[in-house]
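Task: complex structure prediction.
Instruction: return structure tokens for all chains below.
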Amino acid sequence: MPARGDHDARREDVSEAVWRVLAAHGFSGLTLRAVATEMGASTGLVTHYFPNKKALVRYAVRLADERTQARARRRPERPGLVALRAALLDVLPLGPDAVTMNRMWVGFWGAALADPALHEGEAARYANWRARLLPHVVEAQRRGELDSAAGSEDLVAIAASFTHGLVVQVLFDPENFPPERQISLLDSFLDGFSGGAGSHGRVAPRAPR
Amino acid sequence: MPARGDHDARREDVSEAVWRVLAAHGFSGLTLRAVATEMGASTGLVTHYFPNKKALVRYAVRLADERTQARARRRPERPGLVALRAALLDVLPLGPDAVTMNRMWVGFWGAALADPALHEGEAARYANWRARLLPHVVEAQRRGELDSAAGSEDLVAIAASFTHGLVVQVLFDPENFPPERQISLLDSFLDGFSGGAGSHGRVAPRAPR
DNA sequence: GATCGTACATAACACTTGTTATGTACGATC
DNA sequence: GATCGTACATAACAAGTGTTATGTACGATC
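Output:
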């Protein structure tokens, strides 16, 4: 008899297939059969691990969010603006995996707007994301690395807006937004809010790559 | 025999129903029957005016974009930062109609990412939007209303990112982002890029309402 | 080694989908 | 006023959907 962990591991395998299908075919292309063939299995496997489609989607999305959060938490960051920059960089579609995940999130937004339960979950995730960004902004403001003209909560909302809006533009026009430009745009954005004089040079070092 | 204009007018009626269905139920809820009942008609009407679903979606999305552009073009704007602010304000979900249209756009993004034809169209619309914002940014920089540290194209991309990212957050959490806060966030954002000193007060007057 | 529960595959179900065909009211044309 | 094309409604169709039922291989348990 397989251990309990195997069961959960299988559910995560299915969830990852959901991510890929969602990223490739959008929410309207997310069918149990598509998920099954994505895994090279049958729909029987999917229905064996999830009671219905709604539960499958809920689990897959929640898992995606948990993975993202875990990855962000793991990195020991220097506080303040550097940490904020790292947290935002972490979201951008700078590599193939990040592209897939962002495609899945954007594809999910449309469905979440229409379904009350998914909507609530997504709103909570947004609030959670902002709450995790907030201490970095506060610390950056305390250090004078970020302008204090705007309130911390507002600055967080602005930074989150910029980042996700950039994600959408990147996904639709990847050739116009290669990783280097994404990073440079983020730095220009942060530059705008880095204290009094807006043009005193970059406050954060360029990414090594 | 009805005039040619009636035929086109009917196609626009159908398109508007598509917008509402898309905003309410997302792309996966966009069915010919849903569109028909949204109009209080039968699917026969829809199929009479459009050869297939793909053509219907294409037409509806293109019409939505044309309407938006026409509205933006009509307003005679003062040049520079004021014009940029007005153009961005025009996109935000400040009223019920704008909320509906933005919900439809976000719902459409997911489908556009998955379908090559729709993807191309959406990428073109983004490029077009940036091209229309560009002269305002250039003029604002020339006047010294906007920081010239960042390139004009980059500033446009940053402004577009911020605006659409804010749209998404507003749609998911409207109570946290009432119209006044949306406007104040936009002004804070623009403030960050308004020349040397970042905190010399608002560069653009608050909206009257 | 018989029993049994788990982990699937396979198949069938009712339902919804886009599409197509058919029917029909009705104003314009001769 | 007969004819005709337009503007739909109604209905039928095959294909695809989520869900449920059934079959079955197989390692663990006694």
